[in-house]
Design goal:
Layout: H1 3-25, E1 36-40, H2 81-87, E2 94-95, E3 98-99, H3 140-158, H4 161-168, E4 172-176, H5 179-186, H6 194-197, H7 200-220, E5 225-229, H8 238-244, H9 253-276, E6 281-285, H10 287-296, E7 305-309, E8 335-337, H11 345-356, E9 364-365, H12 369-374
Parallel strand pairs: 1-4, 4-5, 5-6, 7-8
Antiparallel strand pairs: 2-3, 6-9
Helix pairs in contact: 2-11, 3-4, 3-7, 7-9
Length: 375
């Protein structure tokens, strides 16, 4: 067993022990921050697409096969990265003797929004047209608009704008977008012409300009502790290995190269905003580098398969999602990918724990989420 896996087992045992104690006495652990607001795509969507007319939905088995309560709309067998960050106790606390997960915007209401809301939507992009071939989705701009509506409710619940602003300034804001702008836009010439309009450098510039516009709105509406997740190694996903890799194992460099350009620009946004907004703190999570470590040394993290999807897709046919009621692999913790694009809970856990407590200096810049929560 690798050192990384042993450490993870220790962490899980400790967390489960604490949770068991809390359940025994019916107590509620104090969160590190009062609320958690999540923006993103299918990597962190937890049900906002369930009622949309969209092909990008995951509210059926085998999705959620290992999640409490079954399928919820999460594109994984279990928890997503943001769920696991909470599981490592940034703020998900005991509530009514159950683990509390941040609710999706589609169903969040009343007092529960004070604990945070998940606005993420599968197929969503930074650009408005991204993902349109998949049907309904809530773009980054739409998610930010939904957040503005939520802030109005927070003001009503807390009584006035100053109290709400002070409350929101203590919350964590998690943002992870951009993957679809490449897979469901730039590198999909049958539906989009952006690949002909822009060089990879120009496209990254366009995306970052649009991204920062929404970040400024979030800042204007109270966001002060902001986590920006870089794009992972999309060129190493089972879908791309099936379609564009000769041996089914070598990552597609054309896509990964474009992703690295975007990530470098996004990391630059952290410095730009931290210099401009001295009352806020923005950080960057190097998802790309974390995935690179996993793929380079899978056994260190307990994985034996990093090329195929656990629910029978990926290299077999390049399919995007699991088929309804499809029988998944039995050893899900040994697979990095659940379907052709999305990690298993085990894969999400690696990214989450390194985002929360950086294993390498490059994992988080300038600080990790744990430190951000303490600021």
């Amino acid at each position: 067993m690798g050192e990384g896996k042993r450490m993870w087992n220790v962490i899980v045992c400790v967390v489960l022990g604490v949770m068991s104690t809390m359940l025994s006495f019916g107590t509620r652990a104090e969160p590190q921050v009062p609320c958690y607001f999540i923006f993103g795509d299918s990597l962190v969507d937890n049900g906002n697409n369930n009622e949309l007319q969209s092909l990008a939905r995951a509210n059926y088995l085998p999705y959620g096969i290992d999640f409490p309560g079954g399928p919820s709309g999460r594109f994984s067998n279990g928890k997503t990265t943001v769920d696991v960050v909470g599981y490592l106790r940034i703020l998900l606390y005991q509530q009514h003797n159950e683990i509390y997960y941040i609710p999706p915007y589609a169903t969040a209401s009343g007092q529960e929004i004070l604990g945070g809301v998940n606005f993420a939507s599968a197929a969503a992009g930074i650009r408005e047209e991204t993902g349109r071939q998949l049907g309904g989705r809530i773009t980054f701009r739409g998610q930010v608009e939904n957040y503005r509506n939520t802030v109005s409710q927070v003001v009503e619940l807390l009584g006035d704008e100053d109290t709400a602003a002070n409350y929101l300034s203590k919350c964590i804001f998690s943002i992870g977008l951009g993957s679809n702008d490449y897979l469901n836009n730039y590198f999909m010439p049958q539906f989009y012409n952006t690949g002909n309009q822009y060089t990879p450098e120009e496209y990254a510039t366009d995306l970052i300009q649009r991204y920062t516009q929404q970040l400024r709105i979030l800042y204007n509406y109270g966001a002060r502790k902001v986590v920006l997740y870089g794009i992972g190694q999309i060129g190493c996903s089972p879908n791309q290995l099936a379609q564009n890799s000769q041996d089914g194992k070598t990552c597609v460099e054309k896509i990964n190269s474009a992703n690295r350009i975007f990530n470098a620009r996004l990391k630059g946004v952290v410095d730009q905003f931290n210099n401009q907004f001295t009352d806020a703190r923005f950080i960057y999570i190097d998802s790309y580098g974390i995935f690179q470590d996993i793929i380079a040394s899978p056994s260190t993290y307990g994985f034996s398969n990093v090329n195929e999807g656990c629910c029978g897709v990926g290299r077999n046919n390049g399919q995007i999602t699991c088929l309804p009621l499809q029988t998944p692999c039995a050893n899900r913790n040994a697979y990095l990918f659940w379907d052709a694009f999305h990690p298993t809970e085990a894969g999400n856990a690696v990214v989450a724990r390194r985002a929360y407590t950086a294993q390498r200096p490059s994992d988080a810049y300038p600080v990790d989420i744990r430190r951000l929560a303490q600021i």
